[in-house]
Amino acid sequence: MKNYQMAAATVILLAATVFLIDANESESDGDLTLPVVSIDTEGGKAVLSDTDYLVCSVDVAGYEDGAGDISGAEGKIRGRGNTTWYGNHTWWDMPKKPYKLKLAEETDLFGFGPTDTYIFIANYADQSLSRDYFAYTIADSIGLEHTPSCLFVDLYLNGIYQGVYMVCNRIGIESASVDIPYITEDPADSGYVVEMDGWISGEGTEETDYFVLDGNCYAIKDPEVTDPLWTAEHFSFIEGRVREAYDAVASGDVARMEGCIDVESFALTYIVNELFNTEDIAWSSFYMYYDPADGLIHSGPVWDFDTSSGNSRSEAADPECLYASYMNKWYAGLLRTDEFAEMVGDLLSLNRQTIVDTMDADMEYLRSHRYDFEHNFDRWGVLGSTIWANPVEFVHLRTWESHADYLYGWLTASLDHVCSVYCG
Length: 424
Prior knowledge:
Blueprint: H1 4-19, E1 36-41, E2 54-61, E3 70-79, H2 83-86, E4 99-107, E5 115-121, H3 131-141, E6 150-157, E7 160-169, E8 192-196, E9 210-213, E10 216-222, H4 232-251, H5 254-258, H6 263-276, E11 286-291, E12 296-299, H7 323-327, H8 329-334, H9 338-368, H10 370-379, H11 400-422
Parallel strand pairs: 1-6
Antiparallel strand pairs: 1-2, 2-3, 3-4, 4-5, 5-7, 6-7, 8-10, 8-11, 9-10, 11-12
Helix pairs in contact: 1-11, 3-9, 6-9, 6-11, 9-11
């Protein structure tokens, strides 16, 4: 096996050699150009809970040259996330917090489509601030349905600048996200969103909120199990369909798989997850949904890439490691069939240039707002340090731009390797 630490260090040192600047220089010295979101809680209360909402008002300025501005929208806000909310006070803290904003009325704030829920991703431990953004834009560009929409904003909370946040829509059943039928009285006519979620066993109740399959917990994300139409029959139905699909994948019988899952959706999410080597792929943030229109389990949407693409201290840091192929049991089973590997190769060959073009467009977008990204680190002085999953080599990357260029270089190396394996 290759020395993954050496491979990752080579990419990092190359980036550091080209882009390292005096750490004492001021990071931001230009105009801020991202849209501004200002959230003010009632009475100026601090957001301290990831379960209890605070009433708030929301202003948006500068989106679409002011055409998307709003003022005084009513809503409520709370914290969200797992490690990114709580941190680990033995090893690290996460003072830049992620948030969930729920508006009183469905509103299309950023062209995502009408929704009442917006997620504000802090990316405190991803100093490029953009791993999630690259993952979602690439997933969308290759045709993965229901990929989260996203953009960056400068966030102010109770008048205090909080930094650059990536805003995206939640994963759930609605027109702006997973656009499938919602719950009906008939379980077979209802849509479902399920997540492999290793956190749920400490938060929910087995056989009510989640079920266990081959050592992994699968949480019912939508519909909510508190919905008046939800019954034990709904739970049994979706648990049964997921188990049936998993058994079909494990069997290696292609015809049986095709009767249970949308194979192409699994191939597309595999490409994204393999390209990024996301560490969570073995146990959480792995979503799937059941669409009653075709009666199949679909893979996606993809989610949560902050500990990916070199932001890791495991073998996943190596861009030449096919991490998802053996860490995720669904992908491992599918890849035992020649048909699935060939589909992955065909989709990669078809979309390789699209992926490159998307990465280039992403870099152009990021650099067009570079002063905003640099200003984030005037608020949060973490450049040149390591947090959570950061490899120790990140201490050499002392500017936002060096982190962004490292990410681009890492993804380029990973794409080359994945294509060399599957495209012949």
